[in-house]
Amino acid sequence: MKTERRRLTQARIGVLMGGQSSEREVSLRTGAAVHGALCRLGYDAVTVDVGPTLSRDLQEQKIAVAFLALHGPGGEDGSIQGFLETVGIPYTGSGVQASAVGMHKVTTKTVLAAHAIPVPAGMVIKRGERISHAQALRSTKLRWPVVVKPASEGSTIGVTIVKKPAQWNPALSLAHRYDREAMVEAYIPGHEVTVSLLGRENETPVVLPAVEIVAPGGFYDFSAKYEKGKTQYLCPAPLPAAVTKEIGVLALRAFEVLGCAGAARVDFRITPRGRPYVLELNTVPGMTETSLLPMAAVQAGIGYEELTERILESALARMKNKEHAA
Is 29 exposed, middle or buried (0-12, 13-18, 19+ CB in 10 A)? Predict the structure, then answer.
């Protein structure tokens, strides 16, 4: 690993952050924290606020490796990954396909369900379709409450827990503000739990301790995620050993089925009887001071700087492929 680390320390690393999605502010915080860790570790790292001049910025700053700290559309959906593939800059995390599938919750559910990974029942309503709550509940065999959310957003943006008919149309309108497809899903009562994974080339990914999220009012929304003190985090999650083992196995299967690399996070709802359902998979987990991935890593004995370096290693395989192709 010393030889591999030397290759990375000799390369200028651009921490790609910001972007234009609704998660821009969170991305800037992730990027700043990552940049600080890389500098403390002795890497030649600079921050790059992703915008229309990205291609020129990468050339002017002589970026050799990209550390992706972008969240939301444009950063997690395969777009930036495809751009970096085209210009030949190795990058951290999952590739184009895994990123695109992971960002689109409908596609994620379809792929996971095909591999017998449990997901909530539901349906998709496209912008412009006029489907009443009665029609939706009848076709999906669901009952109140249901969850309505955009198909391709993160940080619980545009999500509503719909408990009565009067909330139906406003919930759809909110979701369609962010995406042409709105997902309607069964609300799974019980525990909100997340499992982070840390991949390494030619090794089975490490499954980090699960984190249970106890949010005010039971809804882990944007403010509950990013305002300190609003939410209680229990790590490791106080779950029965059998449930902890099961969600670890499911998280690893989801990671491998989608073809993820580097770090990823799988979010679950677990019923009071201990039955888990996968809600989504995050291919660029947050790295802010309140983020769940660093919290789980610390519990496993992996500090923030080591975690950052482990994620950076995921760019090595792409560096090798580039050199081999040359």
Answer: buried
Q: Does the annotation mark 43 as catalytic?
A: no
Residue whose C-alpha is closest to residue 34's, from 319, 316, 222, 309 = 309
Annotation says 265 is catalytic: yes
Candidate list 212, 280, 309, 313, residue with the active-site label: 280
**226 flagged as catalytic:** yes
Distance CA 197, CA 78 (A): 19
Q: What is the pLDDT of residues 162-171, one digit of tens each?
A: 999 999 999 9
Tell me: the pLDDT tens digits for 5-59? 666 667 899 999 999 988 899 999 999 999 999 999 999 999 999 999 999 999 9
Catalytic residue among 265, 269, 310, 318: 265
Assess whether 212 carries a catalytic annotation. Answer: no
* Count of beta carbons in the 10 Å neighbourhood of residue 322: 14
User: 158, 170 in Cβ contact below 8 A?
Assistant: no
Look at the pTM and tell me if it is higher than 0.70.
Answer: yes
From start to end of 101-217, where are the E strands?
122-126, 146-150, 160-162, 181-186, 191-200, 203-207, 211-214
Annotation says 155 is catalytic: yes
Q: How far is CA 190 from CA 10, 193, 239, 274, in A?
A: 49, 10, 12, 9
d(CA 233, CA 298): 13
